[in-house]
Amino acid sequence: MAKVVPRPHLSLWENLYVVEIFKGLMTTWGHVQKNVTTGAFETRNYPEEAPSLPRDYRARHRLMKRPDGSPRCVACFMCSTACPARCINIVAEEADRADIEKRPATFEIDLLLCVFCGFCVEACPCDAIRMDTTIGVMVHDNRRDFIITKDKLLDWAPADYPATDTQSQKAPGGTLNAQALAEFNAGSRH
Amino acid sequence: MTFKPLPPSVTSADLNLGDAFVTTRVDAVVNWGRRNSLWPFPFGTACCGIEFMGVVSSMYDVSRFGAELVRFSPRQADLLIIAGTITYKMAPVLQRIYDQMCEPKWVLSVGACATSGGFYDCYCTVPGMDEIVPVDMYVAGCPPRPEAFLEAIVSLQKKIDRESMAEQKMVGA
Question: In order of start, what are the domains of chain A with their CATH numbers?
Answer without folding.
Answer: 62-156 (3.30.70.3270)
